[in-house]
């Protein structure tokens, strides 16, 4: 919850041009990212997928970067389980952090997630589209 609040305040502050009442707060604790097991990491980062955005650099992204392989494992597990929202959120983080191992096939995985989970869930479509845009930006 603390990271979501921080992200919303930071986005609002940026939207106001750095003025206004929404001054960013100090970043919440992110040390948990380095220590939790990969299923927990995937679950929590998927809940914070809106923070996987271009230009948003914070301790959370720095802590998550070395755990891309664990996140890729969580993405594959979420797809196998049919947890489309978690897969889409993990895919968005993978796209923001560099895509994970080539053997993952993130682009095809995102298509699969969207085709099976995107019809009934707007958040799945949103995260898949954001992941595509993040991938395209990294490829340029």
Features:
about 140 residues, mainly alpha, 8 helices, about 65% helix, globular
Summarize the structure in words.
This protein is mainly alpha-helical and 140 residues long. Helix content is 66%, strand content 0%. The protein has helices at 2-15, 32-35, 38-47, 59-64, 68-81, 84-97, 106-117, 122-139. Helix 3 packs across helix 6 (84-97), helix 5 (68-81) runs antiparallel to helix 6 and helix 6 runs parallel beside helix 8. The protein is globular.
- Round the Cα radius of gyration to an integer and report it: 15 Å
Number of discrete helical segments? 8
Return the domain count: 2
Q: Which structural class is indicated by helix and strand composition?
A: mainly alpha
Series of secondary-structure elements, N-terminal to C-terminal: HHHHHHHH
Mean pLDDT: 88
How far apart lie the N and C ends? 33 Å
Cα shape: globular
Question: Regions with pLDDT < 50 over 5+ consecutive residues?
Answer: none
The percentage of residues in β strands lies in: under 5%
Instruction: Let me know the largest β-sheet.
Output: none
Share of residues in helices: 55-70%
- Per DSSP E runs of 2 or more residues, the count of β-strands stands at 0
SSE blueprint:
Elements lengths: L1 H14 L16 H4 L2 H10 L11 H6 L3 H14 L2 H14 L8 H12 L4 H18 L1
Task: Describe what is shown at a glance.
With 140 residues, this protein is mainly alpha-helical. It has 8 helices and no strands.
